[in-house]
Amino acid sequence: MKIRRRRRTKIIATLGPSSSTPEVLARLFQTGADVFRLNFSHGSHEDHAARIAMIRALEKKFDRPIGILADVQGPKLRVGRFGGGRVALQTGAQFRLDMNPTPGDVTRVELPHPEIIAAASIGTNLLLDDGKLRLRVTAVRADHLLTEVVVGGPLSDRKGVNVPDMVLPIPALTEKDRADLAFALEHGVDYIGLSFVQRPEDVAEAQAIVAGRAWVMVKIEKPQALDNLDAILALADAVMVARGDLGVELPPEEVPLAQKRIVRAARARGLPVVVATQMLESMISAPAPTRAEASDVATAVFDGADAVMLSGETAAGQYPFEAVNIMDRIIARVEQDSGWRSMIEASRPEPERSAADAIAAAARQVAHTISASAICAFTASGSTALRAARERPEAPIIALTPAMATARRLAVVWGAHAVTVADAHSMSETVTKAVRASVAEGFAAHGSEIIVIAGVPFGQPGTTNALRVATVK
Predict the structure, then answer these.
(1) Per the residue annotation, which of 9, 14, 277, 384 is the catalytic one?
(2) pLDDT of amino acid 422
(3) Measuring CA to CA, which residue among 357, 322, 368, 345 is closest to residue 453?
(4) In terms of C-beta density within 10 A (0-12 exposed, 13-18 middle, 19 or more buried), how is residue 46 classed?
(5) Across-strand partners of 35?
(6) How large is the average pLDDT for residues 98-103?
(7) Entry pTM
(8) Domain boundary pick from 269, 303, 337
(9) Cis peptide before 252 (omega within 30 of 0)
(10) Does residue 80 form part of some domain?
């Protein structure tokens, strides 16, 4: 059975205890998941290897490329342990963060991160336990910080620390991340999720390690990343609006604006952009989403995001299939709305001054004028399909590629239906393959017209410079 989505915006589903058998994966894929996410904050390498093997077996069964996102943990900042495992901090009380590993109490706890102590200053805010507690630094010493509890509450062992006011001199990749990265690349994942990016140097470091073996998807979840957004995106292959930690470190009213800014910036560059975190959070324990959650998914689709992501809903939730199904339905319904098309047209970035963008813009316009059944982009590296997707055309995009790795990476790209074909050596051969694929995949019928775009000479990435109109015979 041919799998063809009735929507352009893609769905990423996170795997976990609720979704780790071949039967569950197959049903998630059939229901609508286009990409599977492996969260390396949890699970062993053996667990992830088993899931990768199941995904690749699923790929063969359905003869469709499936993307795999390996999301590395990044530097997690945490407090130490408490004598009784838990304390209650009172608002207005004094609280000390120090380097002493002795279990803490209501007056102090270990902070095993000297870089925070070194970078802090009087007035610096520290957020604990996903922002539930707030401390303000009142004094800085060589080996500890004195703070005032601004917002109190219960605090238990090893809870996280967020530092929205400072750039920490720590790399985005820890030793654990480097081991996870080596494992993921060895097993042929398609995207690396780079957590807690602060500076463009963080992306450059990851790109040097990845060396083109996967796309580096930067997760924007720090205010410092927003300050360096353009420089970070210039080095990235894809971007994720990671609203979890971003929502902890930014005031809530700033998060929607940050989301729109990131999506706009990524679309302008033609980078795939994913909106993630708490999209259908209530469906971890409920069979239907709230109306606000449905609107949240719809907003990301109206903004023109390439993909939306499910986290705990499919990893640990009670209703993983229902979550994917309702997300699929929301996306499909929004994309049928005339207002959605108007917003997509209004938000389309201007073509860059290059032959590739000129051809992609022309393909969209010609396809609209003649009501083409599809735009077929022949692409070795994926760049031609990315430029076509940047235009957000009405016609479906069939990405024809000789490289399975490219086909898998394009699983996250808006509107792209990737098909692996043998390499082409001439434009006429490319047109022939495009006609056959558009019919075989159910996009075109006898007498319909398709648009074919490619780069000549063949085999040179980024040389999109040719456009043909072909009639299906």
Answers:
(1) 277
(2) 95
(3) 357
(4) exposed
(5) 12, 67
(6) 97
(7) 0.94
(8) 337
(9) no
(10) no
Is residue 2 a part of any domain in this protein?
no
Does 315 lie in the same domain as 187?
yes
In a shared domain, residues 323 and 444: no
The answer to whether residues 14 and 120 belong to one domain is: no
Q: Which of 78, 132, 136, 269 is catalytic?
A: 78
Q: State the pLDDT confidence band at 1, using cuts at 50, 70 and 90.
A: low
Which residues are within 8 A (CB) of 48 and not within 5 positions of it... i.e. 6 or more apart?
38, 40, 70, 183, 184, 187
Q: Which of 37, 108, 134, 243 is catalytic?
A: 37
- Is residue 277 annotated as part of the catalytic site, yes or no? yes
Domain of residue 359, CATH code: 3.40.1380.20
CB neighbour burial string for 315-350, b if at least 16 within 10 angstroms, e if fewer:
bbbebbbbbbebbbebbbebbeeeebeebbeebbbe
Q: Give the pLDDT of residue 462.
A: 67
pLDDT exceeds cutoff 80 at 223: yes
Q: How many domains would you assign to the chain?
A: 3
Statement to judge: residues 94 and 26 lie in one domain? no
Range of the domain at 43: 10-75+172-337
- Residue 329 known to be catalytic: no
Q: Which residue of the set 8, 134, 199, 219 is catalytic?
A: 219
Q: Say if 214 falls within a structural domain.
A: yes
Tell me: pLDDT of 459 over 90. Answer: no
Q: Give the mean model confidence (pLDDT) for residues 38-66.
A: 97
Amino acid at 385: A
CATH number of the CATH domain containing 146: 2.40.33.10
The residues, any chain, with a CB within 8 Å of residue 148's CB and separated by 6 or more, are 92, 93, 94, 95, 135, 136, 138
Residue 94 and residue 54 in one domain: no
Q: Are 321 and 187 in a shared domain? A: yes
Is 346 a member of any domain? no
Contact 461, 380 (CB under 8 A): yes
156 and 178 together in one domain: no
